[in-house]
Amino acid sequence: MRLVDANEAQLRRWDEAVERSVNGTLFHRLDFLAYHGDRFADCQRNLVLLDGEEPFAHLPMAVRDSNEGREAVSPFGASFGSFAFTAVPTYARSAEAVGALVEFLVAEGIERCRLTPPIACCAEQALDTFHFALLEAGFRSVNRDVSSVVPLPASGDVASSVTSRARSTAKKARTAGVEVVRKAPIGDFWPVMEAGYVSRGRQPTHTRDELELLEKTLSDRVFFDVATLAGAPVAGLAHFVVNERVDSSFYLCQDPAHASTQALSLLVLEALEHAAADGYRWFDFGTSTAAMVARPNVFLFKESFSRAGMFRETFEWTKEPGR
């Protein structure tokens, strides 16, 4: 196997190949990464792992100079990266893939490489054999954060699968007159996000213009649900559909002035019901930890819908002295 820059034909087929892969995500797609504009123009490398002449994996990567030397990172400007495989790799193929990656890193004079693969539910089956191959080749596990996920029942009966607390708070919101607007305009979502983030002294990952562009270009994958009270938005959820298996909430936010209505609980419950009805197997709430430190209040809210957690793990390789 060898890792090379994608040619024009491979670039044209890139997003289609990611969709057919066993673990590819929205964040591997070039049409998603394009929302960054020229931000990564001087460092983005769209790499294809070739088995002979046939692509076996696709790897979006940024190669750039830093204070610690030349580095390669995947993802860049996204949540997940690493290889999107065309088939579940055996141990032998995993070792070959990692070997090809290390050969590429050395040839490019790269001092450090960081990979954050998708969480387990994004793949057709667990890819821990590949992660083992990374460790065996000298990569280290340098960060493990917990993503809170909800297994969606095939029956679609989400309400009976969540806790009584979640059902009770959602009922309270309905009684208070809260209603949910599915696929609401960003003009209704953005004020709620601003109110929710500013109150916590944080800035959203995306600007309004960036979210608007993603919604326009990937409307089936990026959209917004908004909870309203007397017609006014009070809570919001931004869907980023990861792949055919996983829907996710990239943003969960509410206006602090209306937190007592429990609008966010109703918003989440209805989002889970829609996701199950649309055939998704999992709903990803995103990380409930930061740099391996738990956020107890975040866990408390999310665990009213599910206690399942999956590691979002980052692996790092550093060049051996003299190599």
Blueprint (SSEs and pairs):
Layout lengths: L1 E4 L2 H5 L1 H7 L9 H4 L10 E8 L2 E13 L2 E6 L9 E2 L5 H17 L4 E4 L12 H9 L3 E12 L12 H12 L2 E4 L4 H13 L9 H10 L4 E8 L2 E9 L5 E9 L8 H15 L4 E6 L1 E2 L2 E2 L1 H7 L5 E11 L5
Parallel strand pairs: 4-6, 11-12
Antiparallel strand pairs: 1-2, 2-3, 3-4, 3-5, 6-15, 7-12, 7-15, 8-9, 9-10, 10-11, 13-14
What do you see in this structure?
This protein has helices at residues 8-12, 14-20, 30-33, 91-107, 128-136, 164-175, 186-198, 208-217, 263-277, 296-302; strands at residues 2-5, 44-51, 54-66, 69-74, 84-85, 112-115, 140-151, 178-181, 222-229, 232-240, 246-254, 282-287, 289-290, 293-294, 308-318. The strands form 2 sheets. Strands 1, 2, 3, 4, 5, 6, 7, 8, 9, 10, 11, 12 and 15 form a 13-stranded mixed beta sheet that branches. Strands 13-14 form a two-stranded antiparallel ribbon. It contains 10 helices and 15 strands. By secondary structure, the protein is an alpha+beta fold. The chain folds into 2 domains: 2-144 and 312-318, Aminopeptidase; 153-280, 3-Layer(aba) Sandwich (Aminopeptidase), CATH 3.40.630. Helix 4 crosses helix 5 and helix 6 (164-175) crosses helix 9 (263-277). The chain starts with a strand and ends in a 5-residue tail after the last strand. Strand 13 (289-290) and strand 14 form a beta hairpin.
